[in-house]
Structure formats: C-alpha cells, structure tokens
UniProtKB/TrEMBL annotation:
Keyword list, A-Z: Oxidoreductase
SUPFAM superfamilies cross-referenced by the UniProt entry: FMN-binding split barrel (SSF50475)
PANTHER family per UniProt: HEME OXYGENASE HI_0854-RELATED (PTHR35176)
GO CC aspect terms: cytosol
Residue stretches making up the Pyridoxamine 5'-phosphate oxidase N-terminal domain: 20-151
Identification of the protein by name: Putative heme iron utilization protein
Stored InterPro entries: F420H2_bilvrd_red/Heme_oxyg, HutZ, Pyridox_Oxase_N, Split_barrel_FMN-bd
UniProt source species: Shewanella violacea (strain JCM 10179 / CIP 106290 / LMG 19151 / DSS12)
Domain of life of the organism encoding this protein: Bacteria
Keyword Chloroplast annotated: no
Length: 190
C-alpha cells in the first residue's frame, strides 16, 4: 500500500471518529424531522413528524388523514431532513442539517417491531404516543436511510453511505468546484 493511500485512509478514519459522534448528537438534539413525500401520481408534499431513533432506523407515527400519511402508504421512497433551528444557527444561509433518502415501511401492529417503535416514541414523547398508537388511523412507519448528507457549515458537507450511513466522504467540490481554502482548513480542524 502506498504512503499516500495509507495517509488518506488515516485521514478518513479521523474524520469518521470526529463526525459520527457529532452526527449522533445532532440527531438526538432534534425532536422532529422534515418529510418530502409524494403520492401515487408523483405530486410532492412537504411536512414534518416527531420521530424516535432506534438501532434499526427512525420511527414516526402518522395519521392516514394527513396527506403525508397517505403518501407514505402509496410511495415508500421519502426524503428526510433534520435541520438546526433558525435561532441556533450562526447564519441562516448555512444551517446545520442532515438529509437522507430513505425507504418507509409500514409496521404491522401485532409485531415486536411495532412494540419497539412505539416504545421508542413513547420514551421520547410520553403519554401522547400511547394514546395515538391505539387509534386505527395512525400507522407506525420505520424509515430506513440508504444515503445521506451532513452539512455543518459553508464548505463542510459530508456524504454518508454504507450500512447505517457510517461511511463518510467530505464533499470538497460542493456544487461548483473546490471549497475555499479557509473553509477547507476549518473543516479539516473540525
């Protein structure tokens, strides 16, 4: 193995060791996620839902009466975003955010997965979940991410891939070429 390749692997490992705990902390600090769903005809809808994170994905409890509840039943592909609150952001133009493409699957009520998902939501949101989960128009969905992007500021976008989104790649080229030197140095020291 060449010295350059080994050096690159060491840098990637250090990046993972710094970023993954930060991403986990960010996910834990958010209570709701933004959803981009579409119906069977492909008409998009933006919405949100409170969520709980478990070891096998994100769980949301959604009413069929809500447009996104119907959409998730019609189309299992969903885009999700967890975003820093405007009041917490250093700048409105670069709010910290985690976006990912996911597969949404409805969880059957008489399963251990349903019990697990409701328990995770209940631990986070209390009695309201216990009350909603018994209503027949509410469905539990498990969102399983398959590709993500974590943005922590200007020039600091990181692609997340692999099982459980644990493979991190710094998107140095952004949308229009390389990251400015100052921002690259900030990201390297992050």
């Amino acid at each position: 193995m060449s010295a350059d390749k080994k050096n690159s692997q060491v840098k990637e490992q250090r990046l993972r060791e710094k970023l993954l705990p930060e991403i986990e902390e960010f996910k834990a600090s958010r209570s709701s996620l933004q959803l981009a769903t579409k119906n069977a005809a492909g008409v998009p809808n933006a919405s949100y839902a409170p969520f709980a994170l478990a070891d096998d994905g994100f769980y949301i409890l959604v009413s069929e009466l809500a447009r996104h509840g119907t959409n998730l039943k019609e189309s299992s592909e969903v885009s999700v975003m967890l975003v820093e609150d405007e009041s917490e952001a250093k700048t409105i133009f670069a709010r910290k955010r985690l976006t990912f493409d996911a597969h949404a699957s409805i969880v059957d009520r008489d399963t251990q997965v349903f019990t697990k998902g409701v328990a995770a939501l209940s631990a986070r949101f209390g009695e309201m979940i216990d009350n909603l989960s018994v209503l027949k128009d509410f469905n539990l969905f498990k969102l399983t991410p398959h590709h993500g992007l974590y943005v922590k500021g200007f020039g600091q976008a990181f692609s997340l891939t692999g099982s459980e989104l644990l493979d991190v790649d710094w998107k140095r080229d952004g949308h229009h070429g390389g990251a400015p030197k100052v921002e690259a140095e900030i990201a390297e020291s992050a």
